[in-house]
Write a structure and sequence with these properties.
This protein is α/β, with parallel strands linked by helices. It has 13 helices and eight strands. The chain has a domain of about 200 residues: P-loop containing nucleotide triphosphate hydrolases (Rossmann fold, 3-Layer(aba) Sandwich), CATH 3.40.50.300. Bound molecules: 3'-phosphate-adenosine-5'-phosphate sulfate. 3'-phosphate-adenosine-5'-phosphate sulfate binds next to α2, α6 and α12.
């Protein structure tokens, strides 16, 4: 008898991590050998950390604030999701990325040891976005419910929380992902940033990212334009970023841009669940001091 009832479409285990069928083994093999360019920019996140938000911002920074172009092409085509293959959407990350002109802005949710070998053999920039794991887990729960790619999860919140803490979710354990990438924080081509800081002061974060991306000459006007274009309300109503066209997401159950806030976990976790989470966190992340913010 399986421990968990829910089965992801095409579910498989690859090098100890659970994956859905949209990241099949042959794609994960091919990703390892992906030809990384020196001027690639990687958006590295665990699912639901604010990936789409960062993709849109970074794409605009490297494209000198070209909002006109951002308004006519889906973010998932401008910034390919490397280990993703969805033939219905015609979204095959590797195929999109290969012919793309530089600089490419590439999304991955992979733990560090499954990322392309070239990611640390080149000077490509890696922006690693973290989000407090309680809000992230809540966001993942709702996405599991709304997306057919995840099998439209019918289980309860406590069931999902257990699966999350056990690493029994697509792309494997959050703890494993976070520890692996945190270990790379001293690499000069790795930049760690936090969803909560972006919520607090987006313009300042855009300026800091621009410096990391060797675009420190970005104008105040461009920063303002990017910040306005990328605020929650603007991305929620923008058909190029809100994923309303994506057949697998039932926005009536829960849209991709759901609440976009810090602290929504408090409306899901009971006091006991939060205490249990903290206990497990302390055990699994012993000796690792990541400054997560659970409220603003
Ligand atoms: S995915 O599918 O894994 O790439 O999802 P991801 O983009 O990482 O995460 C979706 C959550 O990010 C929130 N989001 C934003 N928050 C604030 N401002 C902006 N502009 C923004 N864009 C996306 C989105 O609302 C999801 O979080 P929740 O908590 O579910 O609302």
């Amino acid at each position: 008898m399986e421990k968990y009832k829910h089965v992801l479409p095409g579910q498989h285990v690859y090098k100890g991590r659970l994956f859905f069928g949209f990241s099949p083994p042959d794609v994960l093999d091919a990703v390892k050998d992906f030809d990384v360019r020196e001027d690639d920019v990687f958006i590295v996140t665990y699912p639901k950390a604010g990936t789409t938000w960062l993709q849109e911002i970074v794409w605009l920074i490297v494209n000198d604030g070209n909002i006109q172009k951002a308004k006519v092409e889906q973010v998932y085509f401008r910034s390919p999701f490397l280990e993703f293959k969805d033939l219905v959407l015609n979204e095959v990350g590797l195929e999109l990325a290969k012919p793309m002109p530089s600089p490419r802005v590439i999304k991955t949710h992979l733990p560090v040891d499954l990322a392309p070998t070239g990611i640390f053999k080149t000077k490509c920039k890696k922006l690693v976005l973290f989000r407090n794991p309680k809000d992230l887990c809540v966001s993942y729960f709702h996405f599991y419910r709304s997306s057919s790619s995840f099998g439209n999860f019918q289980g309860s919140w406590p069931e999902f929380l257990e699966m999350f803490l056990d690493g029994h979710v697509d792309h494997g354990s959050w703890f494993d992902f976070t520890k692996g990438w945190w270990d790379k924080r001293d690499n000069s081509d790795v930049y760690i940033l936090y969803y909560e800081d972006m919520k607090k002061d987006l313009k300042n974060e855009i300026k800091k990212m621009s410096c990391f991306l060797d675009k420190s000459d970005i104008s105040e006007d461009t920063v303002d334009k990017i910040a306005n274009h990328c605020c929650f309300e603007s991305m929620r109503t923008n058909p190029m970023t809100n994923h309303h066209d994506v057949y697998s997401i039932n926005k009536e159950i829960s849209p991709l841009l759901r609440k976009g806030m810090v602290g929504d976990w408090k409306s899901h976790f009971t006091v006991e669940q939060s205490g249990y989470f903290d206990l497990l966190y302390a055990e699994k992340m012993k000796g690792i001091d990541i400054p997560f913010q659970y409220q603003l």
